[in-house]
Recover the amino acids of this structure.
């Protein structure tokens, strides 16, 4: 290895020193996401406060990771939870298994479940990764910023 | 129905030459060669096709317009097209109209995912509709009964449910109100749809119009697992399907592929909605032992280990008592274990075999043989309440042209419209034998249904009946067996007597009971006294019961719908139970516990699965010879007929007073009482008297009476019914907690009862 080679190597180093870094100072700075980014799920309410989800379990049927569990029950006049005849008494997503494919969102006939932008989903226990209905009905606490190239940003692969 | 021996004809379906039975309907001919013609209303089990839904339209060359394939019989050289543009157009049109008023609420519909309407629309329907007008709306759901919910918006008016009610159950309760797009299903009177078979309409409905209330919103088809199994409710042995979710049984339905030799896909509501009993509050879920500390819960290994240690002690005298529903495997392993224990006696709780030998030696028949019978005579019993699906078989036989007669002391649901009712004097079945002879005269394919309990009580009548049937050419017999375990355990030679006598003689140190609770059944008082003399009781039980409280070791076991095993039906058909759910964590199948005991005794039996036990047993017992577990498959197989036995001398009824006529309705048994779903159809314990007799006894108008036999004295609700014979007291057994069964002797022999008015403070209580 000659002296020239060493200089060549340092050349790369010094050139890169002068470019803008691509690393982000996470967690102080969050990676921005595109609008159709698929992160943590959210269950939605109607304007009148009733749940959109009717507990039809179609999301569970569509889910390739088999990580959704829905147990439905009937709405009664005294206890009306959703707008339909039935509601989800139990709605759980096992976030440890979810592959964030978004099929649940596509399957839902009532737009009751969507995948939001939040991607900070680490927990200390596996149990905490099972998101129950009350968790999912809350908006995600930490929303990352949107990517600056929006609109017209690249469409994430797999979604057409 | 067309004649089976008609020569086949050749027709052309979609350009393919097809051989079909003449008279067969086009749908079936097409199905045989894999061409699907969509149908909704067509269901051969409901009788003749009615062409209500028009889904099955096809083009037949030379016939004007489209034809309904479900009601067009094949004819020589027919040329059929099921895929032409005209047919496609018709299919699109029919589905568009069927959906014109349909609410399209599949996501909230219990049928969604297993719905023929969804499937047909997807496969044969138009992608969209041109109908923009507002749809009809009805309040929903409407409870047709506490068990069946009706959603009128979804009904496609296919008539299946109405035809079931009219032509199969023949209760004539369901009908259509109004016409056109206002058509709706209702009962004639507006009363709830009541009956023993109502749940079958749910299985039949091709849309989500009729759904099960207990299953309402419980699960969706992709969240469940289904297992084909057998009902352990009565001795008919209906084939059914069990739905499991999250480890629990959530639903029981008729088999989608019915066993045409047994139940044809119809099951009774007791079989359908008894499963909540498995999770009832008094289910035994953890083994219990009694030691120095007192009664406490232990793990099953510990309980079986303790029991094994007791059995290992030398010189110990053991006895086994089998109750119900006990599988053939349970019985076999009890016998195997008894061989390891100096041939300890094994007995079953049930009716004694004495005197029934001649009847059991008669040529037997399967349930579907009734379809072709010319004469059917029932002697004793009440199949509608004790073996319910038999009723549907009898009604079908009558529609097929059989003359049906019911000879016995009880009024039954079949009287009048299906069976000619020949009421006998209670306790005097023997007197009616010439009437039976008269009905059998000239028949060539007669079937005689005889009731195990009633004929065991009258051995002379049993012998006479056996000779009568044997001398009638072509006549065959089916036993209306009293309990679901009896036929199988009998095939293993397990008697109904012996153990009680041995206990009373002080010859039993350890009693092992398998799903048996003798203290609330016949001879209960005598059993209770006898059990006090047994130092150690080891109880294998599904639920908490008096024997569990008495036992030194109680081990929870699985119930029929949860276990693998074999049951033999009353028509002598061995059929496999398949586990529909895993059952309580601390429980095991009874046969497994018995094998476990043999291990702890140091003499391990080799069986690891119920199937192995069955195959080993079949080699040993002639009744099962040549059968393997694989042979039984999904539909079961008949076992060899019994070899019979001697006739017995006449039995005198014990006690004084009125002859007691006993019924044991399956809608009233312990399991039915544990299932909250059956609240609306449950039968309760009571005593029936003819009003004249009640008057004579001075109890007319009272709510309760005191019933006294030599064995017990019990206070029971009184029901006066003019259809009852005045020489009898009609005891209907319901919840075992009523202790009414203890009025009977231990072998369920004939007995008379004294009926008296209760003393004042009894009724207030
Ligand atoms: S995103 Fe995909 S994997 Fe995750 S819950 Fe939805 S369907 Fe299942
Ligand atoms: S309720 Fe169901 S079975 Fe009865 S007519 Fe309507 S669609 Fe047919
Ligand atoms: S299936 Fe032929 S008309 Fe209904």
């Amino acid at each position: 290895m000659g002296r020239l080679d060493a200089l060549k190597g340092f050349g790369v180093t010094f050139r890169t020193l002068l470019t803008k870094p691509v690393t982000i100072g996470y967690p102080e700075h969050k990676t921005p996401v595109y609008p159709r980014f698929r992160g943590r799920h959210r269950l939605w309410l109607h304007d009148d406060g009733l749940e959109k989800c009717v507990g039809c379990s179609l999301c569970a049927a569509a889910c390739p990771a088999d990580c959704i569990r829905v147990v439905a029950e009937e709405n009664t006049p005294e206890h009306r939870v959703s707008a339909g005849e039935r509601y989800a008494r139990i709605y759980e997503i096992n976030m440890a298994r979810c592959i964030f494919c978004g099929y649940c969102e596509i399957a839902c006939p009532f737009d009751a479940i969507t995948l939001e932008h939040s991607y900070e989903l680490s927990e200390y226990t596996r149990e905490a990764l099972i998101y129950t209905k009350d968790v999912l009905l809350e908006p995600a606490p930490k929303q990352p910023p949107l990517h600056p190239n929006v609109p017209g940003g690249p469409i994430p692969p797999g979604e057409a | 129905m067309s004649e089976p021996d008609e020569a086949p004809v050749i027709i052309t379906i979609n350009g393919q030459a097809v051989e079909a039975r003449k008279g067969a309907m086009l749908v079936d001919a097409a199905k045989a060669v894999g061409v699907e013609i969509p149908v909704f209303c067509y269901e051969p089990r409901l009788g003749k096709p009615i062409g209500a839904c028009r889904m099955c339209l096809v083009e037949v060359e030379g016939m004007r317009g489209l034809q309904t394939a479900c009601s067009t019989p094949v004819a020589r050289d027919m040329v059929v097209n099921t895929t032409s543009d005209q047919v496609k157009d018709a299919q699109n049109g029919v589905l568009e109209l069927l959906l014109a008023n349909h609410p399209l609420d599949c996501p909230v519909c219990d049928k969604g995912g297993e719905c023929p309407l969804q499937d047909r629309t997807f496969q044969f329907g138009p992608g969209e509709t041109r109908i923009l007008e507002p749809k009809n709306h009805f309040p929903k759901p409407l409870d047709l009964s506490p068990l069946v919910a009706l959603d009128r918006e979804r009904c496609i008016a296919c008539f299946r449910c109405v035809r079931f009610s009219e032509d199969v159950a023949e209760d004539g309760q369901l009908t259509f109100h109004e016409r056109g797009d206002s058509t709706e299903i209702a009962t004639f009177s507006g009363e709830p749809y009541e009956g023993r078979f109502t749940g079958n309409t749910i299985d039949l409905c091709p849309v989500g119009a009729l759904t099960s209330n207990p299953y309402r919103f419980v699960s969706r088809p992709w969240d469940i697992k289904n297992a084909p199994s057998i009902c352990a409710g009565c001795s008919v042995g209906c084939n059914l399907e069990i739905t499991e979710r999250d480890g629990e049984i959530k639903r029981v339905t008729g088999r989608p592929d019915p066993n045409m030799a047994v139940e044809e896909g119809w099951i009774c509501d007791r079989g359908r909605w008894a499963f909540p009993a498995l999770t009832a509050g008094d289910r035994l879920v953890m083994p219990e032992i009694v030691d120095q500390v007192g009664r406490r819960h232990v793990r099953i290994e510990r309980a079986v280990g303790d029991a094994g240690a007791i059995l290992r002690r030398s010189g110990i005298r053991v006895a086994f008592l089998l109750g119900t529903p006990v599988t053939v495997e349970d019985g076999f392993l009890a016998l195997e274990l008894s061989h390891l224990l100096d041939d300890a006696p094994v007995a079953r709780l049930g009716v004694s075999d004495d005197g029934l030998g001649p009847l059991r030696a008669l040529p037997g028949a399967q349930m579907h043989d009734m379809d072709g019978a010319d004469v059917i005579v029932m002697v004793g019993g009440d199949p509608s309440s004790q073996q319910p699906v038999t009723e549907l078989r009898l009604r079908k036989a009558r529609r097929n042209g059989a003359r049906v007669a019911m000879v016995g002391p009880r009024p039954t649901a079949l009287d009048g419209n299906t069976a000619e009712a020949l009421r006998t004097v209670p306790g005097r079945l023997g007197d009616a034998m010439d009437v039976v002879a008269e009905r059998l005269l000239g028949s060539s394919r007669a079937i005689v249904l005889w009731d195990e309990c009633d004929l065991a009580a009258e051995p002379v009548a049993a012998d006479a009946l056996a000779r009568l049937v044997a001398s009638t050419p072509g006549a065959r017999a089916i036993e209306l067996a009293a309990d679901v375990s009896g036929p199988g355990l009998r095939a293993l030679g397990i008697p109904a007597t012996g153990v009680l006598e041995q206990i009373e003689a002080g010859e039993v140190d350890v009693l092992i009971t398998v799903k048996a609770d003798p203290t609330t059944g016949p001879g209960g008082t005598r059993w209770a006294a006898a059990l006090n003399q047994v130092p150690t009781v080891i109880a294998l039980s599904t639920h908490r019961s008096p024997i569990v409280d008495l036992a030194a070791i109680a081990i929870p076991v699985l119930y029929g719908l949860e276990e693998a095993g074999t049951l033999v039906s009353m028509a002598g058909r061995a059929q496999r139970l398949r586990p529909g759910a895993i059952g309580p964590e601390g429980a095991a199948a009874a046969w497994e516990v018995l094998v476990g005991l043999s291990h702890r005794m140091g003499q391990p039996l080799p069986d690891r699965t119920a199937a192995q036990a069955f195959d080993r047993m079949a080699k040993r017992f002639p009744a099962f010879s040549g059968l393997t577990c694989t042979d039984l498959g999904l539909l079961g197989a008949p076992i060899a007929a019994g070899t019979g036995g001697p006739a017995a001398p006449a039995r005198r009824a014990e006690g004084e007073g009125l002859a007691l006529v006993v019924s044991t309705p399956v809608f009233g048994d312990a399991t039915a009482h544990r299932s909250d779903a059956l609240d609306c159809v449950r039968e309760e314990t009571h005593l029936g008297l003819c009003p004249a007799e009640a008057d004579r006894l001075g109890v007319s108008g009272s709510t309760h009476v005191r019933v006294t036999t030599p064995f017990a004295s019990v206070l029971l609700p009184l029901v006066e019914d003019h259809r009852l014979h005045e020489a009898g007291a009609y005891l209907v057994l319901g919840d075992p907690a009523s202790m009414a069964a203890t009025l009977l002797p231990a072998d369920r022999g004939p007995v008379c009862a004294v009926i008296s008015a209760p003393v004042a403070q009894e009724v207030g209580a």
Summary: The helical segments of chain A are 3-17, 58-62, 103-107, 133-137. The two ends of chain A are 52 Å apart (CA to CA). The mean pLDDT of chain A is 89.
